[in-house]
Design goal:
Layout: H1 2-29, H2 42-65, H3 69-96, H4 106-138, H5 142-170
């Protein structure tokens, strides 16, 4: 038991650091401008990555409920990699292109901004949730992992699905 406690203690400072650093670095990189790169093809790619992440998250939950722990673990690792790939592409797009303003009006505009703001806020919150949930499983604390996963899964799924919704809503306004 002391090994699992040590593992969690060992990674807690790293998880906290990453959870603070990633949003700060992303915010700073949004101020950096790289000219001459054509990243117009990235939004549909990272929207597809979000959709795939959502599907794989659901598959991961189904696999663990079916007792397929190894498959569950592989799917979650893939979801983490896909989320990281999304983030890199998203930041690259924003470093190389002007922001695309949403052109919708009325209730659609309010809905779009609600979804966008909650997506962004929860995408910051999901970082420590995923990392702490993962370390709980890695430490063999499956009861605690399950409790954390009950919160992490719906938040992560929301972030993945709303990433697709935001893309679909802003797609007509891309230049």
């Amino acid at each position: 038991m002391s090994d699992t406690i040590d593992l969690e203690k060992k990674y807690k400072p790293l998880i906290v650091s990453v959870s603070i650093a990633v949003p700060l670095v992303v915010a700073l990189l949004f101020r950096v401008r790289i000219e001459g790169w054509d990243t117009a093809g990235l939004p549909p790619v990272y929207a597809t990555i979000n959709a795939l992440t959502a599907v794989l998250l659901i598959a991961a939950v189904a696999s663990i409920k079916a007792g397929k722990r190894s498959l569950h673990e592989r799917l979650i690792k893939l979801c983490i990699l896909l989320s990281a790939a999304f983030l890199v592409m998203y930041v690259l797009r924003h470093m190389t292109s002007d922001p695309t303003p949403y052109g919708g009006t009325g209730i659609n505009r309010y809905f779009y901004y609600f979804v966008l703001v909650t997506h962004i806020a929860l995408s910051v919150i999901i970082i420590p949730l995923v990392l702490f949930t993962y370390v709980k499983a890695w430490s063999g604390k499956f009861d605690q992992h399950k409790k954390w996963a009950r919160i992490t899964f719906p938040v992560w799924l929301y972030v993945a699905v709303t990433g697709v919704v935001v893309y679909l809503m802003i797609f007509p306004y891309y230049q």
